[in-house]
Design goal:
The complex is a heterodimer of chains A (about 675) and B (about 325). By secondary structure, chain A is of the alpha+beta class. Helix content of chain A is about 35%, strand content about 15%. In chain A, the strands form 7 sheets. In chain A, strands 11, 14, 15, 16, 19, 20, 21 and 22 form an 8-stranded mixed β-sheet that branches. A 4-stranded mixed β-sheet of chain A has the order 1-10-9-8, with helices on one face. Chain B has about 325 residues and is mostly helical. In chain B, helix 2 crosses helix 3 (about 45-55), helix 8 crosses helix 10 (about 230-240) and helix 12 crosses helix 13.
Chain lengths: ~675, ~325
């Protein structure tokens, strides 16, 4: 072979390599090509969960993971409405029998033979062991963790209805303070040394009895949440963040349909089907939580949700769930439109492109995208920290009038129109539509804009024209938020501008979400905006947000406004254990009247969710509450691959145009240069 | 040479010590540990919570050496930690900072190394080309385009390219990152293109000036008079003799490849050190920010030393003594 031909071959090889690389690179598919035929659900997250510890995680982002990874004794029927509990890890719904005075004993029976995902942590119990059976003691252990003050669970209050729950926590703290040797023991040994919670008893390996105050029947709903998932003691002992091991908060051990396969807080989280899940190991059980339902709500059959290819079939249908970090909304939504996310909300920047007169635009329909909408069991509100000297209880009547005045200038309708494209119903009280106690005819007198009355109230509050007589300057308040984006700050500007009409100077203090949560935990705030998505469908689950026992400053509970009102508390306690009926309705009405005057919140809106789903995603029924129902969903990867190809064909003509332009620019220049040289 | 290196390293050590002192003043004296705690915990947090937080993060000691605290104070602790690369934990989420840096370095280097190499490989030949065609409309068009390119904000490049290249032309993903070797090129192509385009204007202007200055020297005129070809003159003589100013610009940039690109990483969702820095700024995460500034200064000093050393390598007339 001559030198010339060798050079030509090398040149050809080089050119071919460059073109091959360009061909591989010139593709906007963010996923490896081998995934094309796989049943992978693509989703996103904005900020990583602070904790995946089921005893602590209490936000939607964390529940997207914990809800799929941790299975519960009970769960909700996917299709039936009103919501209905079904057995999960338990063989049946709990039995109930009277316990000690004022207590009811709930009896659960776990299915024998269920095991955790494989994990080296289990070698702690027995060298070389990679998994073990899920036993009722693991649920009892998790309940002890909820009671443990060191765990700092946000749901201590509802579980305090369990007999001996609070006493266990107190005894634990006391013993740890008094006995250094005890405090150095692994937590499971500490719990065992104290004998566990009085009202929680394991009966054999699979029986569990929980003694709960009789006036709190809502406890059953909590057994459908990850807080009560079985947690093996080995996981807590092994994943302690020492010697290179992750913290348990970052390393869940699955009992559910999925396991956390990859967890990178900065960019990517991956769930994959858990081969050890009881539904996968024992499909013959056809357990209610492990097969797709054969019955649903009216309309489900017509909507194709009970089609024979799914009804009664073992779950899950989807093999893997990919969560990619998307800090910015527009790139995220554009990727959805390119087919690279399977579901998305409608972002306000693209609202007009997507929604046309309340329905899908023709372009979206043509793409096969589906729109599902509905008012969610939610409430979004501006809250006042009632522990604060200026806006809270210490300010007395003056502060109350200040809150009333501030409430009268916030226009919820305008707010939702501007910032949520109208996706929300102006809220008059904490209760959203669809819940018992919601009164469509009720109009809160402090929730319609009345600037004149607001100014009168400011005078009555001794802040004429917003001037604080103590300083002679405008009253200055702070608004704490976790949204640091320019877009987020614009929203808060809407409120501060409204309050400026009263002469009040409200400064926005923005930090990230975790720091904001930290501030709230420490009572370091005056005004905040918060939302609540129902844990379970009962008015109690909204009104408890204002019960004094749950005040953030008192118990670390979710009453972030630290609202404390004796009459409200009495009514709440009476209402919560009552069945729905006229008496309960009257109590709810009176509670609403108290809130109307006291104004711990400025109720903004109940969110109306517009969710978009790609045509290839099957079995989609919006659930409303923050439970990931991933195991029930299915998708058609072939259709997805085909449509993605259609939607994302690279447009290459600009390359040729560019090349022609480049040649047209250079060649005359070279010719001119050569001519001049000659 | 050895003595020179030792002397430069000593100067570098003095600079690093000075930077550390400034960092200490900025992050602990101007912004007191109480301020840092309150930024993390909230303005109205009870004092007991602030104190506990300070203890947990090692911010509870006296700021400066004092009787009884000659060794046990924050200044000494600050130097000890930074010089031993024991950066501690994030003020915001308690994750170990060193681990975050270790994780972030890969994605950062995956972006910045090709970006740097391509920038050099594209800018120098283009500058030579423009200098070669000096005084023609190619030269003038090149200069105008370079000035235009320098005038456009990098944000416009990013948003425009994400829309045009990612959304309309479908050439590359709009944003995101995956270290999977099968797809990593896709994610990096667009930010690299933007980075190259963004830096090209300034680079071409600089290199062109250097090349033109060199091509007007006597020895080039002599070579031309002797009948030496223009391409040979540019590549053999002009380029070689322009290496010192070129190196000054290039070598000093190399250490900063480790710190990533703030804007590109942030907008494209690349989990590198630049994105970590932006997250730290947005989240008032002082410990991470302090660490990143320190690493930046350390790399700057290293860059300066490398640049000086490189002079001797490319120009035998330079003696490092």
């Amino acid at each position: 072979m001559t030198l010339m031909s060798t050079c030509s071959a090398a040149r050809l090889l080089g050119l071919t390599s460059i073109w091959a690389l360009a061909w591989v690179a010139c593709n906007n598919n963010p996923y490896p090509p081998t995934e094309a035929g796989e049943k992978v659900l693509y989703s996103s997250f904005r900020e990583a969960p602070r904790s995946l510890d089921p005893a602590v995680a209490y936000d939607t982002g964390a529940h997207a993971i914990t809800g799929s990874v941790y299975d519960t004794l009970l769960e909700y029927h996917y299709l039936k409405r009103p919501y209905e509990l079904i057995p999960g890890l338990a063989t049946d719904l709990p039995t109930q029998r009277p316990g000690q005075a004022g207590y009811t004993v709930y009896g659960f029976s776990l299915r024998p033979g269920m095991v955790y995902e494989n994990d080296p942590a289990f070698s702690l119990g027995m060298p070389g062991r990679m998994t073990r059976e899920i036993v009722s003691a693991d649920v009892a252990f998790e309940l002890c963790r909820l009671a443990d003050p060191a765990v700092n669970s946000p749901v201590v209050e509802p579980f305090s209805n369990i007999q001996g729950f609070q006493e266990f926590g107190q005894a634990l703290t006391q013993r740890r303070e008094e006995d250094l040797a005890f405090s150095n023991l692994p937590v499971h040994e500490q719990y065992a040394a104290l004998g566990g919670i009085e009202g929680v008893k394991s009966v054999g390996d699979h029986g569990l009895e929980v003694s709960v105050r009789s006036d709190y029947p809502q406890i059953q709903y909590w057994f459908a949440m990850p807080f009560t998932s079985p947690v093996p003691w080995e996981a807590i002992a092994f994943y302690d963040g020492e010697e290179g091991r992750p913290r348990f908060a970052d390393h869940p051990i699955a009992s559910g349909p999925y396991r956390l396969q990859h967890y990178d807080r900065q960019s990517r989280m991956v769930l994959e089907a858990n081969p050890n899940w009881y539904g996968a190991v024992h499909p013959e059980w056809a357990a209610p939580g492990a097969v797709y339902p054969s019955q649903g709500a009216p309309g489900d059959l017509e909507a194709g949700l009970l089609a024979p290819e799914w009804a009664g079939k073992p779950l899950p249908f989807i093999d893997r769930v990919e969560f990619r970090r998307e800090k910015e909304a527009i790139p995220y939504f554009n990727k959805f439109l390119q087919g690279y996310y399977d579901a998305a909300g409608v972002i306000k920047e693209s609202f007009d492109q997507v929604i046309d007169e309340g329905g899908l635009s023709a372009d979206m329909e043509e793409m096969g995208i589906r729109l599902e909408k509905g008012v969610e069991p939610t409430i979004f509100y501006i809250g006042f920290n009632l522990d604060d000297d200026t806006v809270g209880r210490p300010g007395g009547e003056r502060a109350r009038r200040l809150r009333q005045a501030m409430s009268l200038v916030i226009d919820s309708e305008e707010y939702t129109r501007i910032f949520t494209n109208g996706r929300g119903i102006p809220a008059q009280s904490p209760l959203p539509p669809g819940l018992f106690g919601y009164d469509e005819a009720y109009a809160n007198p402090y929730r319609s804009v009345d600037l004149e009355r607001a100014r009168e109230l400011m005078v009555e509050a001794d802040y004429p024209q917003g001037i604080d007589p103590n300083t002679g300057k405008p009253l200055t308040l702070s608004f704490d938020t976790y949204d640091t984006s320019a877009q987020g700050l614009l929203q808060y500007r809407f409120f501060t501008d409204a309050w400026r009409q009263l002469g009040i100077d409200v400064k926005v203090e923005a930090t990230n979400y975790n720091q904001f949560q930290e501030k709230v935990r420490n009572g370091a705030y005056q005004i905040f905006m918060w939302g609540w998505v129902a844990d379970y469908p009962d008015p109690e689950n909204f009104l408890f947000l204002l019960w004094s026992d749950l005040a953030r400053s008192k118990s670390g509970g979710p009453n972030t406004a630290n609202f404390m009102n004796d009459r409200f508390d009495d009514l709440y306690l009476s209402m919560k254990s009552r069945p729905n009926g006229a008496e309960r309705e009257a109590e709810i009405k009176e509670m609403r009247e108290i809130l109307e005057v006291e104004r711990p919140w400025i109720e903004l809106f109940h969110r109306e969710d517009y969710a978009l789903f790609q045509g290839w995603l099957e079995n989609v029924k919006p659930f409303g509450m923050s439970f990931p129902m991933t195991k029930y969903r299915d998708l058609d990867p072939a259709e997805r691959t085909s449509l993605r190809k259609d939607w994302n064909r690279p447009v290459v003509w600009p390359i040729w145009v560019g090349l022609v332009l480049l040649i047209a620019l250079i060649v005359p220049g070279v010719m001119t240069f050569m001519r001049e040289r000659q | 040479m050895g003595a020179y290196v030792i002397r430069r390293l000593s100067y570098g050590a003095v600079v690093v010590f000075g930077v550390l002192f400034l960092l200490f003043i900025l992050f602990f004296a101007v912004t007191s540990p109480d301020d840092i705690a309150r930024k993390a915990l909230g303005e109205r947090v009870p004092p007991a919570v602030v104190e506990q937080w300070k203890v947990n993060h090692g911010y509870d000691k006296p700021l400066f050496p004092a009787p009884g605290h000659w060794a046990d104070n924050m200044l000494v602790e600050h130097y000890r930690r930074m010089l031993t690369f024991d950066f501690g934990r994030s003020d915001a989420d308690d994750t170990p900072i060193l681990e975050r840096i270790r994780k972030g370095m890969g994605p950062s280097l995956a972006l910045t190394i090709p970006l740097f190499v391509l920038s050099v490989l594209v800018a120098i030949p283009l500058s030579l080309l423009v200098a070669f065609f000096r005084e023609t409309y190619i030269d003038r068009a090149g200069v105008i385009l370079a000035v235009l390119a320098m005038s456009v904000s990098v944000l416009l490049y990013i948003i425009g390219a994400q829309y045009l290249v990612g959304k309309v032309l479908h050439w590359f993903p709009i944003s995101g990152f995956d270290s999977d070797p099968r797809v990593i090129v896709r994610f990096l192509a667009l930010p690299i293109m933007i980075g190259v385009a963004n830096g090209l204007g300034g680079d071409i202007r600089f290199y062109r000036t250097v090349f033109l200055e060199e091509s007007n020297t006597d020895y080039v005129r002599t070579a031309r008079a002797k009948g030496c070809g223009e391409i040979r003159i540019m590549s053999r003589h002009v380029f070689r003799n322009s290496l010192i100013p070129l190196l000054t610009r290039i070598v000093v940039a190399i250490p900063f490849l480790f710190t990533g690109s703030l804007l590109l990483e942030s907008f494209f969702g690349i989990p590198g050190l630049g994105a970590i820095t932006v997250d730290a700024i947005q989240g008032n995460d002082f410990s991470v920010l302090r660490t990143m500034v320190y690493i930046g200064s350390l790399l700057f000093v290293v860059g300066q030393i490398l640049t000086d050393l490189s002079y001797a390598l490319v120009d035998p007339r330079v003696r490092l003594e």
